[in-house]
Design a protein that fits this description.
Residues 52-216 form the tRNA(Ile)-lysidine/2-thiocytidine synthase N-terminal domain. Its EC number is 2.8.1.-. This is tRNA-cytidine(32) 2-sulfurtransferase. The chain is α/β, with parallel strands linked by helices. It has eleven helices and six strands. The chain is globular.
């Protein structure tokens, strides 16, 4: 009786990767990011002659990419401006303190590390198992704003990208019943700081691809152990599904955020609906009379 041996599994050979093609694609991506960041800076007047820009560097892909692209644009920009990378070391357990200084020294960027133990504050105030993100964000923002004021920074650059802007818009609409979002440029509540978001036109997927190609030393964002915000997670899941089913939908929403038509919405504070079609001499409507059901004044005259 002969023994039938199983055939060996076929060897799957991946097609050879042409390094020239890879370099070409990476060059195209870098050019696209420079164009999008430059366009955002021009559209919103983010950077002016003589600005001292504080580039907030967290160690994530977004802030690394923002700094890298701004450094490239700085060399050929029509105005002169200063870039300083600033990181807030919140004393989270296990945070690799050496990573950012070593990277910034290697690329020759002026930088400063703010050391402030906000982690202990958040851990003490927030009950175990609850998300720390909201309080942590407020403390971090306060620290960065204080440092910016003390050191004469004229602009504060944050690494939020196009998808962040769209997600925030949906968060506010779905969970807070308001049409507002995360603007590319804003004035802080105390009126002392101008915050800019140079990546406002850039897709998150492009940032991830660029960060991988550049080999940035990414620092994990889960060191504090806090769970992701549930509402934002729901919105992100919805956006990902939309993009799979209808590619380009998120870009359409992002463009819509820059094309607002107040007369086509329902906010009387933004558009004067009362005056629209109002006849000369006619009294403006009285909400109390309409809600209370008071009879028309002419009814007394007819009686």
């Amino acid at each position: 009786m002969s023994t039938v041996l199983p055939l060996p599994d076929p060897v799957l050979r991946r097609p050879a990767v042409d390094p020239r093609r890879v370099a070409h694609e990476q060059g195209k991506l870098a050019k696209r990011l420079r164009r999008q960041v430059g366009q955002a800076i021009a559209d919103f007047g983010m950077i002016e002659e003589g600005d001292k820009v504080m580039v907030c560097l967290s160690g994530g892909k977004d802030s690394y990419t923002m700094l890298d692209i701004l450094l490239q644009l700085q060399k050929k920009a029509p105005v002169r401006f200063e870039l300083v990378a600033v990181n807030l070391d919140q004393k989270q357990p296990g945070f690799p303190e050496h990573v950012l200084p070593e990277y910034l020294e290697r690329v020759g960027v002026p930088f400063h590390i703010i050391e402030q133990d906000t982690y202990s504050v958040v851990s003490r105030v927030i009950p175990e198992g609850k998300t720390m993100c909201s309080l942590c964000s407020r403390l971090r923002r306060g620290s960065l704003y204080s440092y910016a004021e003390e050191n004469g920074f004229t602009k504060i650059a944050l690494g939020h990208h196009r998808d962040d802007l769209v997600a925030t818009f949906f968060l506010n609409m779905f969970f807070h019943a308001k049409l507002s979002g995360m603007p590319p440029k804003l004035l802080s509540d105390n009126g002392k700081h101008v915050v800019i978001r140079p990546l406002a036109y850039v897709r998150e997927d492009d940032i991830a691809e660029y960060a991988e190609a550049r080999g940035f030393p990414i620092i994990p964002c889960n060191l504090c152990g806090s769970q992701e915000n549930l509402q934002r997670k729901q919105v992100k899941k919805m956006m990902d599904a939309w993009e799979r089913e209808t590619p380009g939908r998120i870009e359409t929403v992002a463009r819509a955020l820059g094309d607002i038509r107040p007369s086509q919405l329902s906010d009387p504070n933004l558009f004067d609906f009362l005056s629209l079609g109002h006849r000369d001499g006619a009294a403006l409507p009285n909400a109390h009379a309409w809600l209370a059901g008071e009879p028309h004044a002419m009814a007394d005259d007819d009686a």
